[in-house]
Amino acid sequence: MSNYSLSQALAFGASALTPSSESPKLDAEVLLLATINRSRTYLFTWPEKELSDEQQARFLSFIEQRSQGKPVAHITQYREFWSLNFKVSPATLIPRPDTETLVELALDKAINKQGKLLDLGTGTGAIALSLASELPDWQVTAVDYQLDAVLLANENKSQLGITNAEMLQSDWFSALAGEKFDLIVSNPPYIDPQDPHLQQGDVRFEPLSALIAEKKGMADLEFIITKSREYLNESGWLLLEHGYDQGQLVRDFFAKMAYKVITTEKDLGGNDRVTLAQWAPE
């Protein structure tokens, strides 16, 4: 029996993943591209090209892993974010398209040519390094409590050739004594530990420590809002990603902590996703 052509492999993969994936055709395409290490254009320009024995074995293994629920990004070990390619691992969250909203909003507030920016809980480094790539004259600091995450973020920094970012191991602000920033951004843990969605989809394979927070998901958000007042320059901005149903709670806490100009912005799906506020003490 001959090996699959590219078009046959794509059709097989999509069919095999239909019972277990919400996006079987896209998953099959990404896994096939990772198998052959070619561009999407190649896939559709040469649909009749046959897989080698090694490629076919690898592709079938990828499809089997995905059918068992393993995230595509963990299989390929990469995920695109902000048009950059980030290495991922089970030690961190997988970067998600909705988080690009946070990057866009941060860039809107980075109005000065130079400045200092902090990313709390950086994970893969996706937010920090995306911002550093767009703000070459800014100094970006990114911290994470998990050493594995810091090492991965540093690896991504090197791979992307970014020189204006520093990755540190820190329990939120613990390694930042005396520092001040013009912008602080974070996608912290914000899921209620009792949320049933934790048993569904890709999050089953991601570290709980990066997902859940006490007080129905608000504990880390409240800590960051409270503590950032010591680390923001006057008129600096704090931007936080949060759950679709937490916008009002986050706005109320920002107000309680005396921030100004508090707004919530929606993500690509039309859900409340990022709340930002300015620290301007009177």
Structural write-up:
By secondary structure, this protein is of the alpha/beta class. The chain folds into two domains: 6-69, Helicase, Ruva Protein, domain 3 (Orthogonal Bundle), CATH 1.10.8; 91-279, Vaccinia Virus protein VP39 (Rossmann fold). Helices cover 37% and strands 20% of the residues. It has helices at 6-17, 24-36, 40-45, 53-67, 72-76, 100-109, 126-134, 147-160, 219-228, 247-256; strands at 78-81, 84-87, 116-120, 139-144, 165-169, 181-186, 232-241, 260-266, 272-279. A seven-stranded mixed beta sheet has the order 5-4-3-6-7-9-8, sandwiched between helices. The protein has a two-stranded antiparallel sheet with strand order 1-2. The longest helix is centred in the N-terminal third of the chain and has 15 residues, at 53-67. The radius of gyration is 21 Å and the shape is elongated. The termini are far apart. The relative contact order is 0.11.
The gist of it:
With 282 residues, the chain is α/β, with parallel strands linked by helices. The chain has ten helices and nine strands.
Please specify the SSE layout and strand pairing.
Elements: H1 6-17, H2 24-36, H3 40-45, H4 53-67, H5 72-76, E1 78-81, E2 84-87, H6 100-109, E3 116-120, H7 126-134, E4 139-144, H8 147-160, E5 165-169, E6 181-186, H9 219-228, E7 232-241, H10 247-256, E8 260-266, E9 272-279
Parallel strand pairs: 3-4, 3-6, 4-5, 6-7
Antiparallel strand pairs: 1-2, 7-9, 8-9
Top keywords for this entry?
2 domains; two-stranded antiparallel sheet; elongated; nucleic acid binding; seven-stranded mixed β-sheet; 282 residues; Helicase, Ruva Protein, domain 3; single chain; S-adenosyl-L-methionine; Rossmann fold; 10 helices
